[in-house]
Amino acid sequence: MLYTRFDSPIGELLAVGDARALHGLYMQEGRTAIAVRPQWQAAEEPFEDVRMQLGEYFAGRRRTFDLPLAMSGSPFQVRVWRALEETPYGETISYGELARRIGVPSAARAVGVANGHNPISLIVPCHRVIGADGSLTGYGGGVERKRLLLDLEAGVLALGRTYAA
After folding, report:
1. Domain of 47, in residue numbers
2. Which residues are catalytic?
3. CA 9 – CA 58 distance, rounded (Å)
4. Cα(136)–Cα(49) distance, rounded to whole angstroms?
5. Which of 21, 49, 89, 122 could crosslink 68 through cysteines, CB 3.0-4.6 Å?
6. Which among 28, 27, 45, 52 is positioned nearest to 122, based on CA atoms?
7. Residues 26, 85: one domain?
8. What is the mean pLDDT of each run of 10 residues along the chain (165 residues)?
9. E strands within the chain?
């Protein structure tokens, strides 16, 4: 497994993957931070597309990502994460609506748990899931980062420069 770290407007990000796909993107501030494992190797080149596309996203020039992803989780988690990918840029969805979209309308809580274990933050947009009442519920990177991302996507936040981490 390979990894790299880079700065972003929401703090340090840790990208983990192999030569074929991105396996994880973790905010290193907040409860989703993970430690680099001893067997992982530092590498920059395999993550150039990740770095470039995230830079474009933070600069307001990218609305979708075109990266190979390898999501490891239970079949239910992967269903939730795949459904998250279908939530358009600038839009939000409730946990209950996400549960309905995957065909299990009574599973809003389970959807929330799966959402919280999303290994590829930002690119698999778990920040777009909100409470049924419109409230910003928990987010692994903290509610303040969730607000920043939603404001960026709503066009009410201009970061003012390209973040080519």
Report:
1. 2-58
2. 126
3. 7
4. 30
5. 21
6. 27
7. no
8. 94 94 92 90 96 93 95 96 94 95 95 93 94 82 88 76 47
9. 2-6, 13-17, 22-27, 41-42, 93-94, 129-130
